[in-house]
Structures are given as structure tokens and as C-alpha cells.
Amino acid sequence: MSTYDVAVIGSGPGGYVAAIRCAQLGMKTAIIEKYSTKGGTCLNVGCIPSKALLDSSHHYEDALKHFEEHGIELTGDVKLNLEKMMERKASVVDQTTKGIDFLMDKNKIDSYQGIGSFEDKTHIKIEGEETTTIEAKHIIIATGSKPASLPFIDIDKERIITSTEALKLKEVPKHMLVIGGGVIGLELGQVYKRLGAEVTVIEYMDRIIPTMDAAQSKELTKVMKKQKVKFAVSHKVTSVENTGDEVVVKATDKKDKEVEFKGDYCLVSVGRRPFTDGLNAEAAGVKMNDRGQIEVDKHLKTSADNIYAIGDVVKGAMLAHKAEEEGVFVAETIAGQKPHIDYNLIPGVVYTWPEVASVGKTEEQLKEDKVEYKSGQFPMRALGRSRASGDTDGFVKILSDKETDEVLGVHMVGARAADLIAEAVTAMEFRASAEDIARMSHAHPTYSEAVKEAALAATEDRPIHT
Ligand SMILES: Cc1cc2nc3c(=O)[nH]c(=O)nc-3n(C[C@H](O)[C@H](O)[C@H](O)COP(=O)(O)OP(=O)(O)OC[C@H]3O[C@@H](n4cnc5c(N)ncnc54)[C@H](O)[C@@H]3O)c2cc1C
Question: Tell me: domain 160-270, CATH 3.30.390.50, correct?
């Protein structure tokens, strides 16, 4: 029987990063993945394919709607080749997942393909083409998540679909109903809107992206409405039915009135659930909580003292970079180091266009926590860079402590916000004040000047360019 210092179950961004860090720290490491390709949800049916389709559909929309204003005239018609777009997406996924195999080999990590299940605290049975058992001193559970649904919805994967099917549709829906105005629903909704579908987003809460700052919800709603996406917020879905060539969604609105929506596809994007099927965690004494997550302490240790769990299968934001941080954290903990993660500084991003990005506390949270704060906001449209590219929607908002000026939260909507948020994370990691950011030189012309201007507005209410 092969024995290891560490065995990692699951090869998503949590698992494969944990495995690499363990190997870097000199531990003999194995990784177990049930599918034939590594990379988990993120690389196969999540972050990477969705971003590939967002980029392709963005090009298509630009060609249709924006080339002309830039003085680019097309002599023929712009035509969508959905099959080719999907092929390109598949090849991006293929290259990316192969990259993980390369990294496993480079770091001398043994890969096993099959479903890993606990026999006891130190033995994992792997059922693949053959069945084998390995032994490991430490085990990291990184089994991720699957799309969640509502109890009364029958996901038939044909007309009533999850993100997994939405990433490989063979036709552009005529009318896509999206249940859930969170990140995944909005990103995939925008993809199909750009490709020509009518899109209606039905959301239970009174605003889309409800966990982000309210100003971001408002701005993104405004921009997406301009893009002709329809929204039905404060609507509680009560039934979803595939009637053959139509999907009928019934919901009750704020006034308890029944409303009916009809479309040809219904994307159910109401969140994700932790995935532990087939793991036989009980055999190792690993406990779950009532949300189906694996219970962990502050060291990400489970109720079994040699077993850790990370990523989507434990509490916290279901994000690839959160899973990666936890992978490194656990590897270093096993190696006897004392790593640290500041969960407040895990940024959240929506890759619509304009992009939406956030880190730290929202204005609503600060109010709830009774923290006195200052707020500085700067509109993207006031930037030369935004006018040059035509991306004038959005803003950067910086919230800083009223007394100390320490940055407490940064929230933005705009071109490249997903990349711009890194500056805010850096600043907050170093506990910068808004004035610190305001005094740093930001290259001109860039979108990042909005960060400096918002910091100036927060510091002394003296932005230069508005
Ligand atoms: C459409 C979509 C878009 C997304 N976009 C983003 C984004 O832009 N940015 C972002 O940060 N996050 C995004 N996410 C979320 C992100 O994909 C997850 O947060 C991330 O993949 C979690 O990583 P993980 O390692 O915890 O689990 P996963 O990536 O889910 O990986 C778990 C792996 O474990 C394997 N596994 C499970 N059980 C077993 C077993 N018993 N034996 C062997 N193998 C097993 C699974 O097959 C899987 O490969 C997106 C998700 C979706 C669905």
C-alpha cells in the first residue's frame, strides 16, 4: 500500500493548490480526483469557462454595437457561430486543466483518479478503473460544491438547467429566465443577452447581488437595464415547470400577487451546496453541520485531528481564491507554520461588464456595526481613460474610518474593476488610510485614477477631477 504524508481529496483550486504547497514544503503528497480532468468546478464548469464565454460574447457585442462608433465599418454581416464559441471555450478549459497535470508532475505529486472515500482516519479507498487503498498521515478534504436548487424544482438539464448546462448550450435561448440575481446568474444571463436572448432575472431579495454594497446593486441594475435585461426583484418563485417547448415559472411578488414568467430556458442559479457524497466522512469521525458543510475549527481542522477541510465544502465565501488561500493555509499548518487568512480581505467580483468588485465592509455593514465612517466616491465617466474606451459606467467608493481614516471597504463598478480591486486589497492588508492611497501616484490615463480620486474624496472631500 502506498503511504503519504498528505493525501488531498479533490483537485479544485483548493485541493490542487494545497497539494502543491504540501509538496513545496517537502511532504510526500497524493491527490485524488474523481473526474478525468483536474481543476474542479473552477476550471471545468465554473470560473474559466464562464470567463471565456463572457469574453467571447463581449467581442460579439462590441462588433455588433460599438465598432461603428469607433469608426470601424464591417462590410459583411456580423454572425454568431455558437459552436465555434463553445469550442474555443472548451479548448481554454482543456489547456488550463492540462496545466494542472503539468504542475502535479513538476511537484512530484502522485495523482489518483477515482472516488475517494474514508475507510478510517488514515486510509482512503479510491474507486476508479481499479480499486486501491492508500494511507496518509494527514488528509485534506477539498471536495467542493454542486449547484443548489429549490425543493420543488426538477432540474431536467434540458430546459430547466444549472450553470453547468448553461455553459454548453447548443442554441441561444429566445427567452432565458434566470432564477437568482447573484454572481453566476448575472454573468451567464449577460452572456446570453449579448448573444441575442431576452433575459429576465427573478430575485427573491429586493435587489440583485444582495450581499454587496447597495450602491453596486443599484448601479449594476441600472446598467443591465440599459442593456435590456429585465429584473423582477422581491419575487418568490413558487413553481417551475417544463411544459415541452416552454418553461413556466410562477412567483409571488411583494404584494403576494402571483406572477407568471414564460421562457424557453430557465437557469436555476440560487447558490451552491457543499459536496460530500460518497466520501464516507463518518468512518473517519469527520462531522458536518446542519448546512451540510464539513465542520472545521479556526485552523480548518475537522473533528478528526489529522484531517482538514477547505474551500467550498466548508463555511465562508464560495470563491476559488478563498479555496486557494485555505489550501496554502492548511499545508503550512501541517508543516508546523503559523499562517493567517484575513477573511475580511477576500475580494468579491462579478465579471459582468462593467465589472463589480468589493473588499472589506459594505456601507450597510458599517452602519449595522455602528462604526463611524467617511465615504468618498468618484464616477468612472469623469476619467479620460473611460471616455477613450467608451466605458463610462460605474464608480469607485472608498469607506474609511471617521477618526483614523483607515480604509474599511472599497466597492467599485467599472471597466477592469476585477483587476483594480487588488490595489484596495493591498492597501487594506497594510492597513493604509484613504490619504495613503490619495498620495500615491497612479498612472495617467488609467481606470485606477478613480481609486485615487475616491480616496481623495474620502480623505478631505477634495477630488481633483469632479
Ligand atoms: C459558473 C461558475 C462560475 C464561477 N466563477 C467564479 C469566479 O469567477 N471566481 C471565483 O473565485 N469563483 C468562481 N466560482 C466558484 C468556484 O468555482 C469555486 O468556489 C471553487 O471551484 C471552489 O474550489 P474547491 O477546490 O473548494 O472545490 P471544487 O472546485 O468544486 O473542486 C472539488 C473537486 O473535488 C472532486 N471530488 C469531490 N468529491 C470527491 C471524492 N469523493 N473523490 C475524489 N474527488 C472528489 C470534484 O470532482 C471536484 O473536482 C464559479 C462557480 C461557478 C459554478
Answer: no
Beta bridge partners of 147: 272
Per-domain boundaries in the chain: 3-146+273-341, 160-270, 345-460
Indicate whether residue 293 lines ligand 1 (CB < 6 A).
no
Cell 511537484 maps to which residue?
Answer: 107
299 is catalytic: no
For ligand 1, the distance from its centroid to the CA atom of residue 93, given in whole angstroms, is 14
Nearest CA to ligand 1 atom 2: 46
- Residue with CA at minimum distance from ligand 1 atom 17: 42
Question: What gap in Å lies between CA 185 and CA 268, rounded to an integer?
Answer: 8
For residue 321 and ligand 1, the question of a CB distance below 6 A is answered with yes
Which of the four CATH numbers 3.40.50.2300, 3.30.70.20, 3.30.390.30, 2.40.30.10 does domain 345-460 have?
A: 3.30.390.30
Distance CA 57, CA 323 (A): 28
pTM, two decimal places: 0.97
* CA 183 to centroid of ligand 1, rounded, Å: 15
Q: Model confidence over 347-378: pLDDT tens digits?
A: 999 999 999 999 999 999 999 999 999 999 99
pLDDT band at 461 (very low <50, low <70, confident <90, very high): confident
Q: What is the biggest distance separating any 2 CA atoms in the chain, rounded to whole angstroms?
A: 69
Residues in the chain: 466
Class of the domain covering 3-146+273-341: alpha beta
pLDDT of residue 463: 72
